[in-house]
Amino acid sequence: MKVLMVIVGLILLLPGICAVISAITMLPWAWRDLSSLALLLLLWAFCGLISFGGLRLIGRGTRGP
Predict the structure, then answer these.
(1) 9: part of which helix (H) or strand (E)?
(2) Tens digit of pLDDT for each residue in 7-58?
(3) Which residues contact 43 (CB under 8 A, 6 or more apart)?
(4) What DSSP line would sit under 12-53, residue for residue?
(5) Of these four, 1, 15, 39, 63, which has the most CB atoms within 10 Å of its CB?
(6) What Cα–Cα distance (Å) separates residue 63 from each residue in 3, 9, 53, 55, 57?
(7) Rounded Cα distance, 37 and 8, in Å
(8) Entry pTM
(9) Contact between 61 and 5 (Cβ < 8 Å)
(10) From CA 47, how far away is CA 40, in angstroms rounded?
């Protein structure tokens, strides 16, 4: 069960990694249109929350019995 929790946690980390990469690459262009920046920030925050859940799941899966 613990191995499954770690695997699912790693899968949940992927949206956060993608959000960080897209934030780094898209942020210079997003400053030009502030309306799209608000939507991107909301999307990045949602991906960050999903990744935080993945980190918590990995933490629970790696704790001792």
Answers:
(1) helix 2-30
(2) 999 999 999 898 888 888 887 777 777 777 788 888 889 999 999 999 999 9
(3) 19
(4) HHHHHHHHHHHHHHHHHHHTT-HHHHHHHHHHHHHHHHHHHH
(5) 15
(6) 11, 14, 16, 12, 10
(7) 30
(8) 0.77
(9) yes
(10) 10
Q: Using an 8 Å Cβ cutoff, are 43 and 19 in contact?
A: yes
Structure tokens given for 45 = 């925050």
Structure tokens at 11: 């899968």
Tokens for 21, please give them.
Answer: 């990469």
Distance CA 38, CA 63 (A): 38
